[in-house]
Each structure stands twice: as C-alpha cells, then as structure tokens.
Amino acid sequence: MFDFDQYLGFLAFLSIATIGFWLMIFLISFVVPYWIGGSIIEMIKEKKEAKRKEREGLNS
Asked: Where are the transmembrane segments (predicted)?
C-alpha cells in the first residue's frame, strides 16, 4: 500500500498538521482573551485618567 518514503511523508504531514491545529487552539483559547482583557483594562485606565483630569480642570 505505502512505500517507506510515502509512509514517512505521511507521518511528517500528520505531525505538522497536528502541531498547527494545537497551536491555533492555544492561540484562540489563551492568547486572544489575554490580549482582549489587557485592552479593556487599559481603556478603563484611560477613561479614569480623563475623568480625573477633567475634575482637576473644573476645580482649578
């Protein structure tokens, strides 16, 4: 059915495809939520800073 060379090529293909699959799962489930959470925290900090500066400007 398969020659030895074809078998090694098939195993290499399966290995690369599996590594790519798990890398995408890792990126989607860990890195993206971390990135989105950090962006939200930074946005909240910027809004607080803008409100603080606005209050200081009104009090002066």
From this structure: 12-36
Give the pair of three-digit tokens for residue 7: 């078998």
> Exposure string (b/e) for 9-32, b if CB count within 10 Å is 16 or more?
eeeeeeeeeeeeeeeeeeeeeeee
Provide the whole-model pTM: 0.59
The helix/strand/coil state of 57 is helix
CB proximity list for 10: less than 8 A, separation 6 or greater: 2
For residue range 34-54, what is the model confidence (pLDDT) as tens digits? 999 999 999 999 999 999 998
DSSP alpha helix (H) spans, the chain: 4-26, 32-59
Amino acid at position 60, single letter: S
